[in-house]
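Researcher: Structure for this, please.
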Amino acid sequence: MPADLNRVTLVGRLTRDPELRHTAGGQSVCSIRLAVSSRGRDESGNWSDRANYFDVTVFGRTAETASNYLSKGRRIGVDGRLSWREWEAQDGGKRQSVEVVANDIFFLDSRGDSGEGGSSGGGGADRGWGTAAPATDLPVDTSDLRPAAPADDDDIPF
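Model: Predicted structure, token format:
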């Protein structure tokens, strides 16, 4: 019998700044909330976007990196697994939730593209990105680009 599969891949935007904490053993844990849009037709047949929200937990060095470089509005990709947990609330009722435990996080935009009006987020603090301009603003040297020479039948190796 094949093994079970528990894997999820999401792409979306952070709804708030990451929250970093540490376990009693000193392991870093970062909590983020991700909004992922899905598109569908509403009751009147018009296309509309609907947001889905996911709690994501990141551990270890990846948690520290996420806390240092991510901020509200940033677009990221998350690859991980689903984790279900259950607990008893203070009022005595049982609660449960499903969250994404991230294995990898992919930064999909630059700080200026975060949807926060171009701000760097996190109160404007420099979190390690430095002061380099975005790659789209850099001049490109095309002097060494030449059109490809037409191929003869003798040049084709098959």
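Researcher: Any notable elements?
Model: DSSP finds one helix and six strands in the chain. Confidence is low (pLDDT under 50) at residues 117-138.
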